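For practice. Supply one:
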Amino acid sequence: MRPFDVVVIGGGFAGLSAAAALTSSGARVLLLEARPALGGRASAFVDPATGEQVDNGQHLMLGCYHETFEFLARIGASDLVHVQPSLEVPFVDPAGCQTTLWCPPLPSPLHLLAGLVEWDALGFRDRMSAFSLAAPIRRAQRVLRTGKGRLPASPGETVENWLIRNGQTRRLRDMLWEPLALAALNQSAQEAAAPAFLGVLARMLGPGPTDSAVAVPLRPLTEVYADPACEFIRASGGEIRVSSPARVRVEGDRVTGIEVRSERIDAPAVIVAVPWFALAETFVGQVGALADLLSAAGAVAASPIVTVNLWFDRGVLPAPFIGLPGRTFQWVFDKRQVFGDSASHLSCVSSGAAAVVARSNEALAARAYDELVTALPAARAARLLRSLVVRERRATFSLAPGQPPRPGTRTPVRGLLLAGDWVDTGLPATIEGAVVSGHRAAQSFFL
């Protein structure tokens, strides 16, 4: 059997998308994952009480995740994600008023403007303020399309300050932009830098009719992408090894080998697709050429996510998901799409959860339940059977102003490439960002 062309280290979205793209182009790939299972920070585990595969957090996609859908199509998993025909998001505001933002099938961005005009959660002034964002979003789209110019937002400016500067009312910020910022950036509008948020808006309001629609996985994450990607890579002649912590030995400006316990592996190229916080421990030897990269990665702050899973004796959510702006748990997802109509499993998600991540399981479960039944009083009739708290303390990298610059795909070491949602793709820490980085690393191998 011919030797490996590329070794990919890391089995999350970034590593698997890179490996799948490489194998589809004829390269022979070895993927090494330190954990016993693939998936990284977007994985699932078996709940011992119910036997269900529980995601380590609810991971949403958007219709504008074009490279993610390209990856899913490549591995034969497109039908495992449901994309809304158009954006439709139910909300319950802090006063308990239930409303739905629905965008008609019009060309972008008219569909969003039409949806906001009809959204009964807003007053006239709130609706009109949304039109103030049309010009900066068009400018941002032009920058993304041409690669020229700068986004009309300062790196030192928070999302909230940018929204206020662009005339967005408090009600519109509270009901739409803050929940969107938390979902897309995993940080509040008061903390996250504006350019990342503007990049998200520019992509959501792209030309595709479903670019702004929500896409929900129909199976646990392991089944949605990790298992199909593994099968695809192996069927294409690649090899995948789990429980295989790898170390890349660097001497000066070149890689001299990959060490997996007592085994040494050689390959012309290595793609390191691990999170920023695991980068330093991935390298051994004379790593001076990587000193600046490792120092910057070590200084990146993290932003946590807390997910409280609640099981009831009956279904309680009137929609696949509901936004709860102004609460600790801003989104609730009904897992019936995943496990069938008899399921009673809800996932309550707290993004940007630094203020609550250290609280006890009991306190977090109680808060999630109280916020749920306060927003949806009919849920009180259901009996709570079980709760399970999942913490991802380093779910995403921080997007606060002043964070170290994100690295590119290429490094000062020959044949060494980077992938991961934290690599500079212009996207926040999303599934799409991870896949874009994986595809870029795969493309760089052939350059």
About this structure: The chain has three domains: 6-42+218-300+408-445, 104-208, 302-397. Residues 104-208 form one domain. The first strand starts at residue 6 and ends at 9.
